[in-house]
């Protein structure tokens, strides 16, 4: 009997199953990371676009700014 022969088939299958499960889990984690990154990029882009729109419109006066500018009626 050769002591350097490969392990019996029955012992290799659980290792292969564990490896395949690891690869499936790894792929799922990569998909989730990509989805989160894309969602974050979309939020940043929306926020930047919204801020650019507000800057293009100019500053809008708030009610408290108006109260400070004008004297109160007697």
Describe this entry's structure for a reader.
- The protein has two helices and no strands.
- Helix content is 76%, strand content 0%.
- By secondary structure, it is an all-alpha fold.
- The model has no long low-confidence stretch (mean pLDDT 80).
Outline the fold blueprint.
Layout: H1 9-57, H2 63-69
Q: Nearest-angstrom radius of gyration? A: 32 Å
Strand content: under 5%
Order of helices and strands: HH
The percentage helix is over 70%
pLDDT < 50 stretches: none
Going by helix content, strand content and strand pairing, the class is mainly alpha
| Average of per-residue pLDDT values | 80
Global outline? rod-shaped
Number of helices: 2
Give the terminus-to-terminus CA distance: 112 Å
**Total strand count, please?**
0
Largest sheet: none
Outline of the structure:
The chain is 76% helix and 0% strand. With 74 residues, it is mainly α.
Keywords:
74 residues; mainly alpha; 2 helices
């Amino acid at each position: 009997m050769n002591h350097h022969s490969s392990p019996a088939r029955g012992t290799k299958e659980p290792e292969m199953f564990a490896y395949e499960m690891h690869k499936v889990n790894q792929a799922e984690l990569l998909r989730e990371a990509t989805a989160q990154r894309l969602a974050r990029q979309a939020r940043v882009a929306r926020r930047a676009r919204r801020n650019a729109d507000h800057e293009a419109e100019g500053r809008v006066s708030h009610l408290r700014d108006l109260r400070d500018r004008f004297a109160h009626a007697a």
